[in-house]
Write a structure and sequence with these properties.
Length: 88
């Protein structure tokens, strides 16, 4: 922790980070139908591959496999946010 930063600035930075985290968390609530629609869109774009024999959905950019639409939806949303943050 940098001791040269005034307390009010540290407080402000924490508040901004908390606000940003709350916004991101609110965006990560999927019900089953929304998750299914997102996965269908991702399949159409070629981002998700289906492995029918194993009943898995594979997230192509990361290579991760999932057993449910909700899991893929949450993962992809987080993956997009992480890759967007890396590019900034």
């Amino acid at each position: 922790m940098d001791e040269t930063i005034p307390d009010y600035e540290r407080f402000e930075r924490r508040q901004l980070a908390n606000d940003r985290d709350k916004e991101r968390t609110a965006a990560l609530r999927f019900d089953e139908s929304v998750a299914h629609d997102l996965v269908e869109d991702l399949r159409a774009e070629g981002v998700i591959d289906v492995v029918p024999d194993e009943q898995l959905l594979v997230h192509s950019p990361s290579g991760r496999a999932f057993g449910s639409d909700k899991a893929v939806a949450y993962f992809h949303t987080g993956w997009q946010a992480a890759t967007a943050d890396d590019g900034e």
